Amino acid sequence: MLNNQGRPTNVDNVNSNVGTSTGAALLPSEPLLFEVGDKNKSGVDLPQTDTDFSSRLGGFARQTPINLPGLTEPQSMRHYVRMSRLNYSIDAGFYPLGSCTMKHNPRLNEKMARLPGIADIHPLQPQSTVQGAIELMEELGRWLMELTGTGAVSMTPKAGAHGEMCGMMAIKAAHEAKGQSHRKIVLVPESAHGTNPATAAFLGYKVKPIPAREDGTVDVQAVKDALDENVAGIMLTNPNTCGLFEPDVIEIADAVHEAGAYFYCDGANFNAIMGVVRPGDLGIDAMHINLHKTFSTPHGGGGPGAGPVVLSDALAPYAPLPYVKRVGDAVALIENPKEGEEHLGRLSAFHGQMGMYVRALTFKLSHGADGIEQAARDAVLNANYLKAKLSDVYNVPYDGQPCMHEVLFDDKSLKGTGVSTLDLAKAMIDEGYHPMTMYFPLVVHGAMLIEPTESESLHTLDQFIGTMRELMADAKAGNIDRFVNAPMKAPMRRLDETAAARSPHLRWDEPEDDAATEAAE
């Protein structure tokens, strides 16, 4: 449980043990700046002044003390550096996070994104002064359309969920243009990413779930049975969230189109098939692409994100503004289309994230078409290697076909040990690993979804396999304390994450004892 300073209420939760069983040193817990500094002192020497600032600020003058800790510059710098060293990152270790594709971010990408003329441009500059940047967006879009076999691309969306909304908005606009606003149902497989039904519901659709077969793939007959004149489309992830390629995807697409609906494909797992399979050839009408997952741009806190959306010829007229168009020898961002031209309007103030575009295109150009294909094949190879090496000790719920870029296990192998998926994941932290994705997809009890990506070496995978096998052996041997008390060698022990999430304290307040002492003095 966290107190109002974001720290454990029980001091025993703060771990001073700085060693791990793998020999990697972890720093002890770093106190808050408020706990380090003194609010009654300043970290710099400032001359006294008699200036009355209240006369200049009027009613906006501060009425209470600022209560910021007085710190020197070295104190502040060391605090943030130590905090950064507490973070787990892809540059520090292996991220087996399924469905998140935490691949290595090549330093070449970073160098290109910092080039003068790229890093310092402004979105309000005249287009004539940023022709190179617009051409870069055009080239990136061309690669995306070629890799997906589609007819149009929108670079505007800022993330996967934003891209989903863009694709579904295009579908909705297409139906409205044909006078089919009555289509209010969207089919969503039960194993879909949670953003899929949320996006459909946000746009006013009723979500109709589609069950999975025993092999973990979408039941094509269930799709056909659900299709009627009220269905607007289907939102299907391929490869799906169980780490499997949908074998009946073409048959599903044909049935959806025959019913007058559209096929939205969640492109979160495009990393597994890029350069190998073109989703457009499978019949998709719209698909978002996470540049941070598939094309090595920073993920999460290293963002911002970018989720371009590719569209079929049928949906191309409904792409949002602005879009890139070549006019003679120049390229332009079309802000105001011709009268009568259909579009969605704007999804955001500006076109997108230039730094992410540069990084993604750098990845493509440095790999080439053959390198992109190899990356996809290596991602699938690595996942199947983990499956082959761990499936004798971790149960595979769907074992009818090779997995794609991620392998899914469940908790059946832990039955009777007293160890849960969560306990196992916490024990992984003590071994220096970020936990895999837990309890997702929801269709599998105690799910453990592991994605090695193409970035990891055989040596890294073998180390991970050895750790996972040793953890399972210890669980079956009855060493419960290792798991239920984990992590024991991290800066923080296990916290009440549910309480912290439901009742977060995001502002530091002075502890009551300290405040009372100060008042007494």
TrEMBL record:
Biased segments, Acidic residues type: 510-521
Aminotransferase class V domain boundaries: 177-300
E.C. code: 1.4.4.2
InterPro entries: Aminotrans_V_dom (IPR000192), GDC-P_C (IPR049316), GDC_P (IPR020581), PyrdxlP-dep_Trfase (IPR015424), PyrdxlP-dep_Trfase_major (IPR015421), PyrdxlP-dep_Trfase_small (IPR015422)
Domain Glycine dehydrogenase C-terminal stretches: 376-478
Region (Disordered): 499-521
Catalytic activity, reaction form: N(6)-[(R)-lipoyl]-L-lysyl-[glycine-cleavage complex H protein] + glycine + H(+) = N(6)-[(R)-S(8)-aminomethyldihydrolipoyl]-L-lysyl-[glycine-cleavage complex H protein] + CO2
Keywords: Oxidoreductase, Pyridoxal phosphate
Domain of life where this protein originates: Bacteria
NCBIfam families documented for this protein: PRK04366.1
General function of this protein: The glycine cleavage system catalyzes the degradation of glycine. The P protein binds the alpha-amino group of glycine through its pyridoxal phosphate cofactor; CO(2) is released and the remaining methylamine moiety is then transferred to the lipoamide cofactor of the H protein.
Protein name per the record: glycine dehydrogenase (aminomethyl-transferring)
Gene name of the encoded protein: gcvPB
